[in-house]
Design brief:
The chain is of the alpha/beta class. It contains 17 helices and 35 strands.
């Protein structure tokens, strides 16, 4: 089975095994795990075939927003990524359109309840939780809903330590831990109702909000105030092979690996060098998954330099000024073809390379999930928006915007607030800022005493190293959170290592010359194995540019405050000590291109609407014939009529319009209609149906 049994960060709890069948074959999975992950666990990644062209279907969004993972369970079609596994489930591939059940029994129809509440918060990620905490602590009655089974949103997928400040956004703590801190604080508030596994389906003109409660009951909520904290969805790209099983977003990958503990791939290739792609690469390595490479279309990666440095030190090739040409394979991904591009993003002929991989992660940015907000505005709701739904940024910024919007709601209600919203908004803007270019820094080494060395050279909002120093000897320039840290040296460093352990970028080392000026002891952070590295074990010491050599561990320790970060101390020659940044266990072995590039499809044959299998060429044909209305395009081609409701393909089609010389302002947008996701019809009658037997 392809489950992850050891992990350096995530605690692996015992899970109950159950038996089930897929297409008549008896298999084993874990009770409560979603079906898609149970199939991945058994190395099954094709769940069915499309009715239009028999193309293989597999996991894509892992979020219930599309239908690529549809399977048949006990005769009923369900989304594999949202349906928990139970003992003795009989699961079949969904080939073509599922058939209606043979029985047509009468049902008892009941009206939906209407629930009144003061504030409805949609989304229990960092923004929604932070807002709910503020509202609840001020005795406001809140209903908080989220489509997942636990609180935290994307925080529950993040095993890395967060940036920002310790006091304001829990900097230095891991996303999975921040989710628990925020979630526990909200659960303890008596006037907050929490509806998990509950999806917002629509915002209506009569002031009601439709909710699929607990995935089985339709409820209507009439809030006095509405806060949208629905986060973001991943962007997709158009390229030949983009719908093959094995091509999906970094968020889906993190769901499989970090939530469900599935070794989802053996060799991945990442498209996109922002924080999402860089972090996903590091998460893959923590799960013992090989990262073949990462490409970025721009001259530099857009994510934090410290994230990029972590991957480079671990031997991941990063190809800037490169793009994907195709995902290759018949029924699933076998390889990726990439090529270099010029400053105008045109392919440079002769630079094509093909690398073997079984998974391609698309990490090219996020789009806000803000449809409910705009509908609520149209219908006259008193509505606010926070987090990535408001503006794409880091989770630390979402914590701030959640607080800010909650304070605005309190003010609207008439509750006095002591905090100054303007100051919070200024700080939120700092947290949202795009990372600037790294700057050249010269580190001044002194061959005496013990002191920290900082290898962060990008002015990003982060300062936990300044708050953990027991000697109060670490500051940032001008005490600004976006400035680089330095060691004051007014008092002696005691060599505790807290600054090394807390750093989210793993960019702090400790150099100790006290016992040997020629061979100082250098302490590095390490978090790639569950097993503790021990004294005498050999490790490879690396700089940000290359491997420096193999050395023995002199000391290994773990601080109580940072239990998942090992502090590895190695004695190094003084000149190497001034270059060393990290340690690793294995030498870098680069993957060579496997064969010559062969383009699989023409651009016009490439699929743009994966739900209805509509090609770029078909869209382009109608645009060239004068169609500028999304609704007309929808009627002509069925584009946007599939399970995802155009969430994935709309931005891609807008790009095709631009390629044809038509401005986005000349296009009539598609009409947004309920429902947000697919829902069984019986739900709206509150009828008891066969789904209870699943």
């Amino acid at each position: 089975m392809e489950d992850i049994t050891t992990h350096p960060i995530i605690e692996i709890l015992e899970r109950k095994k159950v038996t089930f069948s897929f297409d008549g074959k008896n298999l084993t999975g874990f009770e409560g795990m979603v079906i898609s992950s149970a199939l991945f666990l058994n190395k099954i990644k094709i769940f069915g075939h499309h009715v239009k062209d028999n193309s293989p279907q597999g996991i894509f969004c892992a979020n219930g927003q599309c239908a690529q993972c549809n399977v048949i369970v006990n005769g009923i079609p369900v989304k594999a990524c949202m349906t928990p596994l139970k003992e003795n489930m009989e699961i079949e591939s969904c080939n073509g359109l599922p058939e209606l059940p043979p029985e047509d029994n009468a049902v008892t129809v009941c009206n939906s309840e209407i629930v009144e509440c003061e504030v409805l918060v949609i989304g229990a990620g960092p923004a929604g939780l932070s807002a709910t905490k503020i509202l609840g602590e001020n005795n406001v009655k809140v209903i908080l809903i989220d489509d997942k089974a636990e609180l935290g949103g994307k925080l529950v997928l993040q095993t890395h330590k967060f940036f920002g400040s310790q006091e304001d956004v829990y900097a230095g703590k891991r996303g999975i831990d921040i989710a628990k801190i925020l979630g526990n604080s909200v659960e303890a508030i008596p006037n907050v109702q929490i509806w998990l596994n509950s999806v917002c389906l629509a915002v209506f003109s009569d002031g009601l909000v439709g909710i699929l409660k607990n995935n089985e009951e339709y409820a209507l909520i009439r809030p006095n105030f509405l806060l949208i904290a629905t986060g973001a969805r991943e962007k997709m790209l158009v390229f030949p092979g983009n719908t093959l099983p094995g091509v999906y977003g970094a968020g889906a990958f993190q769901t499989l690996v970090n939530r469900d503990l599935i070794k989802a791939a053996n060799k991945i290739f990442i498209v996109g060098g922002g924080n999402v792609g860089l972090i996903a690469g590091y998460h893959a390595i923590q799960a013992s998954i090989e990262v073949v490479g990462l490409i970025e279309a721009l001259p530099q990666c857009g994510g934090y330099k410290v994230h990029e440095d972590k991957l480079r030190r671990l031997g991941v090739p990063i190809y800037t000024n490169h793009t994907i040409l195709s995902a290759n394979g018949k029924n699933n991904v076998k390889s990726i073809t990439i090529a270099q591009s010029d400053k105008n993003f045109n392919i440079i002929s002769g630079t094509e390379r093909n690398f073997a991989c079984d998974t391609i992660l698309i990490a090219v940015g996020l789009n806000p999930v803000d449809e409910f907000y705009h509908k609520a505005i149209d219908f006259g709701f008193k509505v606010w928006i926070a987090g990535d739904a408001q503006e794409i940024a880091e989770a630390s910024a979402a914590i701030f915007t959640g607080r800010i919007e909650a304070l605005k709601i309190l003010k609207e209600i008439g509750i006095d607030i002591s905090e100054e919203i303007d100051k919070l908004e200024d700080f939120a803007e700092i947290m949202k800022a795009k990372p600037p270019q790294p700057i050249e820094t010269e580190i001044k080494f002194k061959e005496e005493g013990v002191y920290p060395v900082f290898y962060c050279n990008q002015e990003i909002p982060c300062n936990p190293c300044t708050t953990v120093c027991d000697q109060a000897q670490i500051e940032t320039i001008d005490n600004l959170i976006t400035q680089l840290p330095y060691f004051k040296g007014e008092q002696d460093c005691i060599g505790c290592g807290k600054c090394v352990a807390v750093c989210p970028g793993l960019a702090v080392v400790l150099i100790d010359y006290r016992k040997d000026r020629n061979k100082p002891l250098v302490t590095f952070p390490y978090e790639l194995t569950e097993d503790k590295l021990e004294k005498g074990q050999k490790v490879i010491v690396v700089s940000n540019e290359k491997e420096l050599g193999i050395f023995e561990i002199h000391r290994s320790r773990i601080l109580k405050e940072f239990p998942k970060t090992q502090l590895i101390s190695v004695k190094l020659p003084s000149e190497l000590a001034k270059k060393a940044v990290a340690v690793k266990l294995y030498e870098t072995k680069f993957n060579e291109p496997i064969d010559l590039y062969q383009k699989s499809l023409t651009d016009d044959e490439t699929i743009v609407c994966r739900c209805e299998r509509v090609s770029v060429g078909e869209i382009r044909k109608w645009i060239q014939l004068g169609v500028k209305d999304f609704n007309e395009l929808k009627a002509l081609t069925k584009v946007g009529m599939g399970a995802c409701g155009g969430k994935t393909c709309t931005p891609l089609i807008e790009r095709i319009f631009r390629e044809e010389g038509i401005s986005i302002y000349e296009i009539t947008p598609g009409t947004k209609r309920p429902l947000f996701i697919e829902v069984p019809m019986g739900i709206f009658a509150n009828a008891k149906n066969k789904k209870e037997e699943l």
